[in-house]
Design brief:
The chain is mainly α. The protein contains five helices and four strands, in the order E-E-H-H-H-E-H-H-E.
Length: 191
């Protein structure tokens, strides 16, 4: 099978189920941003970090592929004529969200209480977490907009919201593990 199909040469692409839409379609932008997020999580995973964290990030990457597949399937194409689900895979659900919450709680229990906003930086791995967090928030905003146009699975929105929190706490945890100071945002005051 060739990697190129030429079917998108005119600026359209196919959703699951065959519906063709413009490549700037909000649904495409949503799952394309999730794909970008997944690439940044790969960068985090490729850093010199603990194996347990790498394993969690791999699980998240797999779940993001599932989430992308869910977004690539318009509601009217979710069910085949036979009555079976088009996506015959486990979907993002409350267990996926609970996994992130458990990871956040475990990391947060080892961190000092936050007293200030934190500026991104201090170490490349930490910075990658913050970039991924920002891309995650953009994906979330796009999915919220998509949900306003046509309903999507509410667990997608919850998952992305929780994932951005996870990435923030992971940045803090990596700062601690890599022994780099968190850079506190302390604004100067007007005289």
């Amino acid at each position: 099978m060739k990697i190129y199909t030429k079917t998108g040469d005119e600026g359209t692409t196919a959703l699951f189920g065959g519906t063709r839409v413009k490549k700037y379609n909000l649904r495409i932008d949503s799952y394309g941003t999730v794909d970008e997020l997944n690439a940044y999580i790969g960068l985090i995973k490729d850093q010199k970090i603990e194996d347990a964290t790498k394993n969690s990030l791999l699980k998240i990457q797999n779940e993001l592929f599932t989430l992308g597949a869910m977004l690539a399937t318009p509601p009217e194409k979710e069910t085949l004529k036979s009555g079976k689900e088009r996506l015959n895979i486990p979907k993002i659900n409350s267990n996926s969200i609970e996994f992130l919450e458990d990871e956040i709680d475990a990391m947060d229990s080892e961190l000092p209480q936050m007293t200030h906003f934190i500026l991104p930086g201090g170490h490349q791995a930490v910075s990658f977490c913050h970039v991924a967090r920002c891309v995650c928030r953009r994906a979330e905003r796009l999915c919220v907009e998509l949900n306003d146009e046509e309903a999507i699975n509410s667990d997608i929105l919850k998952y992305l919201n929780r994932l951005s929190d996870y990435l923030f706490v992971l940045a803090r945890m990596l700062s601690k593990q890599l022994q780099v100071d968190e850079i506190k945002w302390i604004p100067t005051k007007n005289n």
